[in-house]
């Protein structure tokens, strides 16, 4: 698939993030082995392997956030490092708005690592840089005439309003909610990093008064705590990629918690047995983790999860009689492939959200769903159609002409019953 070529870029982004996790761990006073453990947890968890290769803005935002933390914890305490941390933090928020929740943790880290004599200048400069860079987005929208609602164009205000008012997916611990289903999908790939990292964050937050490691990792622990609380909102919407934002911090606090336990064992055990106890704990952890991660990682790098998408793209390219005159709703993964297959971008092949949310598209659909020929109903389209009237109606008034895959991950190509387009 066309979008799959971007995985090379995501590999580079993941590599940079992994190095930043190690560097941040060292700057937060973790020993080399613990910082290396954090990098390994971040890079080798099946949850990371599955999600970090996908073309999500969250992965880019994580890189910028880690850079902000790393600059905020700079041992040289240069003011320009703190200004740079503010710029990197703003870039992270502009890349993915939900990174706004992590900003308090960045500034806590900066507060702890800045020099007392220049702390006010450092924080003021970082906040100023972050704010000014952040204002570039609404300024850009204003210059394009898309800040406020109006006829025939999208608006930043409407986008924010949609995100804030969209129906929630329920309480994450409610077995019947959509959020709980997302949680199950995370734990299906890996239980060690999410649960172990959350436990590590709670341990560090509970012992920060007397634990040097807990105080050093106050920023990452706070980030995990904030992201966990946001995920537990009963009225909030929890997307599957949300966990990406927490992965580096879960890895760091789990490594930090492990370092605290090892330090306590080495200090409170006799010299003869202390390394034996540490070795036994390490072996026990490896025996539990390695087989599970091996199976999960092996499945992630060998299973052809995109086969239904490729088959759907090929069917739409070869079986539709006049693609240049056909209108089809698709998700963003298939959009480029159909453009390359001859469908008109924007008016022929339409990202399904735009059929309800973009005035420039909806004005070309005076009859609503009746002006659509096909819907490529991927799991994302079927899930979000509940809140999109035109997309929902198009699915309800269509019949499957081809199905690829099975179960919840299937891709259905559905033809509108009153469509004018034909099938060869």
DSSP strand (E) fraction? 5-15%
The largest beta-sheet arranges its strands as 2-1-3-5-4
Largest sheet: 5 strands, mixed
The percent range for helix content is 55-70%
What sort of overall outline do the alpha carbons produce when their principal axes are compared?
A: globular
Rounded radius of gyration (Å): 24 Å
First-residue to last-residue Cα separation: 23 Å
Instruction: Round the mean pLDDT to the nearest integer and report it.
Output: 88
Report the count of strand segments: 5
Tally of contiguous helical segments: 21
Order of helices and strands: HHHHHHHHHHHHHHHHEHEHHEHHEE
Question: Residue ranges: pLDDT <50 for 5 or more in a row?
Answer: 419-424
Structural class computed from helices and strand pairing: mainly alpha
């Amino acid at each position: 698939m066309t979008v799959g070529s971007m995985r090379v870029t995501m590999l580079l982004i993941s590599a940079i993030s992994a190095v930043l996790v190690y560097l941040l761990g060292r700057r937060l006073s973790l020993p080399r082995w613990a910082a290396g453990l954090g990098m390994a947890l971040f890079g080798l968890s099946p949850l990371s392997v599955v999600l970090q290769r996908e073309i999500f803005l969250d992965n880019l935002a994580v890189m910028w956030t880690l850079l902000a933390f790393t600059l905020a914890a700079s041992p040289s305490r240069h003011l320009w490092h703190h200004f740079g941390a503010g710029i990197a933090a703003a870039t992270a928020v502009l890349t993915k708005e939900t990174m706004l929740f992590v900003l308090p943790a960045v500034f806590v880290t900066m507060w702890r690592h800045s020099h007392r004599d220049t702390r006010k200048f450092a924080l003021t400069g970082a906040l100023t840089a972050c704010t000014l860079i952040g204002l570039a987005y609404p300024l850009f929208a204003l210059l394009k005439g898309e800040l406020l609602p109006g006829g025939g164009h999208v608006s930043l205000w409407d986008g924010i309003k949609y995100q804030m008012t969209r129906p929630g997916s329920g309480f994450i611990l409610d077995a019947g909610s959509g959020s709980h289903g997302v949680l199950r999908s995370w734990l299906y790939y890996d239980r060690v990093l999410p649960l172990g990292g959350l436990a590590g964050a709670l341990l560090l937050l509970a012992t920060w008064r007397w634990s040097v490691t807990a105080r050093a990792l106050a920023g990452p622990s706070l980030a995990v705590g904030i992201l966990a609380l946001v995920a537990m909102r009963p009225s909030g919407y929890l997307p599957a990629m949300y966990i990406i934002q927490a992965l580096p911090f879960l890895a760091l606090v789990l490594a930090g918690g492990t370092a605290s336990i090892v330090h306590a064992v080495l200090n409170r055990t006799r010299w003869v047995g202390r390394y034996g106890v540490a070795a036994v704990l390490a072996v026990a952890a490896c025996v539990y983790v390695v087989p599970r991660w091996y199976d999960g990682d092996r499945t992630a790098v060998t299973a052809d999860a995109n086969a239904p998408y490729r088959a759907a793209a090929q069917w739409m390219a070869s079986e539709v009689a006049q693609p240049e005159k056909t209108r089809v709703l698709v998700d963003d993964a298939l959009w480029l492939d159909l453009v390359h297959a001859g469908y008109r971008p924007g008016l022929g092949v339409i990202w399904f959200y735009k059929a309800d949310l973009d005035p420039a598209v909806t004005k070309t659909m005076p009859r609503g769903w009746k002006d659509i020929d096909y819907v490529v109903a991927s799991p994302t389209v079927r899930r979000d159609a509940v809140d999109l009237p035109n997309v929902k109606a198009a699915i309800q008034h269509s019949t499957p002409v081809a199905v690829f895959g099975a179960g919840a991950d299937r891709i259905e190509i559905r033809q509108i019953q009153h469509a004018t387009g034909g099938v060869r």
